[in-house]
Design goal:
The complex is a heterodimer of chains A (about 110) and B (about 110).
Chain A (H helix, E strand, L loop, with lengths): L4 E3 L2 E4 L5 E6 L4 E9 L6 E7 L2 E5 L6 E5 L5 E5 L8 E9 L7 E2 L3 E5 L1
Parallel strand pairs in A: 2-11
Antiparallel strand pairs in A: 1-3, 3-8, 4-5, 4-9, 5-6, 7-8, 9-10, 9-11
Chain B lengths: L2 E4 L4 E4 L4 E3 L1 E4 L5 E7 L5 E7 L5 E4 L2 E4 L9 E3 L8 E8 L8 E2 L3 E6 L1
Parallel strand pairs in B: 2-12
Antiparallel strand pairs in B: 1-4, 3-9, 5-6, 5-10, 7-8, 8-9, 10-11, 10-12
Classes of the chains: A mainly beta (about 110), B mainly beta (about 110).
Chain lengths: ~110, ~110
């Protein structure tokens, strides 16, 4: 079965650079969530989209922005990267029929040097 | 706000031992409860869920019962295997128009042969 695809899987950036993370939800899933998991930490909700509109916002820094496109894929844009942004970034998607179940991608590991 | 408190780890067991990982929650409304598992270097996989009081979620020999009176959702397995070694996260969402997940800190389980 198709799963959530995230790219790239690994990303290394310098401080103050920008990064773009991409998420391709499972086909026919219309909702996308982004989470950030710091080393040894629990995942923290950043932002979500439903039908290409932002539906909820969590502890996402102002330096980060995100959007969902017409094909339902989503991108998380991160600017002025800081060392503390080093983390695993997960995307999850859920279908119209079952908002209570989120399917997670493998994550993008971002390292900021 | 919503919060999840789960048993501090790490937990180390011998194969075929009984497993319990405690999880309690605080939430507004009537949350849905989840257990996610994260194997080393991988993303989050939904292990089981329960959407209303007294529901029992079960999967792969794991079980958890939604106890509204004690606001708990403890994870149990009668006989663990080496392949169960992973980090286990308890999580909830409060439903309504908001399906973001709030996670506990995670419990690292190591099962020795």
């Amino acid at each position: 079965a198709a799963g959530v695809i995230q790219s790239p899987r690994h990303l290394i950036k310098e401080k103050r650079e920008t990064a773009t993370l991409k998420c391709y939800p499972i086909p026919r899933h219309d909702t996308v969530y982004w989470y950030q998991q710091g080393p040894g930490q629990d995942p923290q909700f950043l932002i979500s989209f439903y039908e290409k509109m932002q539906s909820d916002k969590g502890s996402i820094p102002d330096r980060f922005s995100a959007q969902q496109f017409s094909d339902y894929h989503s991108e998380l844009n991160m600017s002025s990267l800081e060392l503390g942004d080093s983390a695993l970034y997960f995307c999850a998607s859920s279908p119209l029929s079952s908002y209570n179940e989120q399917f997670f991608g493998p994550g993008t590991r971002l390292t900021v040097l | 706000g919503d919060s999840v408190t789960q048993m501090e780890g790490p937990v180390t067991l011998s194969e075929e031992a009984f497993l319990t990982i405690n999880c309690t929650y605080t939430a507004t409304g009537y949350p849905s409860l989840f257990w996610y598992v994260q194997y080393p270097g991988e993303g989050l996989q939904l292990l089981l869920k329960a959407t209303k009081a007294d529901d029992k979620g079960s999967n792969k020999g794991f079980e958890a019962t939604y106890r509204k009176e004690t606001t708990s959702f403890h994870l149990e397995k009668g006989s663990v295997q080496v392949s169960d070694s992973a980090v286990y996260f308890c999580a909830l969402n409060s439903g309504g128009s908001n399906y973001k997940l709030t996670f506990g800190k995670g419990t690292l389980l190591t099962v020795n042969p």
